[in-house]
Amino acid sequence: MPIHGISMSIFAKVTVYLSLFASLVLLTACGEQASDIPAEATLRPVKSVVVNGTGSSKQWHFPGKVRAFEKVDLSFQVSGQLTKLNVLSGQEVKAGDILAELDQRNFASDVKAAQAELDRASAEFNRMGPLLEKRLVSQSEFDQKRAQRDIAEARLEQAKKALDDTQLKAPFDGVIANRSVENFEDITAKQTIMSLQNPEALEVIINIPENRIVELDAERDFIQSFASTTADPSKQYALDLREYSTEVDPATQTYEAILNLIATEEDRIFSGMSVDVLLTSTRKQSDTFWLPASAVIADRENIETKIVWVLSQQAASEQYQVSKREITIGKLENENIEILTGINSGERIVTAGSHYLRNGDLVKLYQGEDF
């Protein structure tokens, strides 16, 4: 009996030790799991695209540059010394505002001299009328005095215009983009003084490679265009394809396309910004979708299986969780691949960084400087 009692006591102690060991393992695992959750600063950045439409959708990505649709380099039409420079770079102005002014003294004197010459020529011409009626002067003398008067009128108009041209005025409401001179400099005619642009009328410029222009031209009536900035890639700005060149640039072998940018006063987007332009064809060909080919990878567990990573945004956070999705693929056209099954409209799919992901990883959207 004692032996039996001792055995039971040892068995009980072993059971307790095993329970404690299991608890420690569990706590350690939980600690490791908690420590595996990355902080916001260390999240892996990924590029992504939102699946659009309810049918097949071809997509093209191009880097673009924002510029002002209304922009003009302002210059004087006459030469002279700059005496007034009323604006600074970045200053808002209204149409008709005087932005700069040249020394007007010589121009004002020219106006007075031209006015005096016109007065004299007009007086001589007026005296010729009665003399012509009395046949005291010939018709040719009368016509000569009239021509002198007309020339004097033209010279006065030129002098007045030159005086008016000593003032540089804003042709439309806008912002001074830059100022290239300082006050009291000697200015020559046609020399650029400053640039004026309308910040509310913006456009985006992209360059389309030769192998894409024919395909895009065929889809032009079905294309929807959007732009996003590196500062906020999740926000899309609507674009309207306005025109594109039909002659290739011999240096870049690309065709320039211009798209109107539709933005509001609240949107923080300015001329000179770099943007990512997404062109999407809405023409439905079949109940499939098109994604950039970089979005599709082979499953690690079965390389014959093709997958994409689907992003799910975490509540009240800029974090996204990735989940593996098995798909079936169709045709491959240039850099786009047809997805027959496996994804739905409105889902956000990873397009770059897929090879480094594992199921359940937390990531953030690409912000430009992270790659």
From TrEMBL:
Coiled coil ranges: 104-169
Domain of life: Bacteria
Domain Multidrug resistance protein MdtA-like alpha-helical hairpin, chain residue ranges per copy: 111-168
Keywords attached to this entry: Coiled coil, Transport
Gene3D superfamilies linked: 2.40.30.170, 2.40.420.20, 2.40.50.100, Helix hairpin bin
Chain ranges of the Multidrug resistance protein MdtA-like barrel-sandwich hybrid domain: 70-192
Protein name (record): Efflux RND transporter periplasmic adaptor subunit
Organism of this sequence: Sessilibacter corallicola
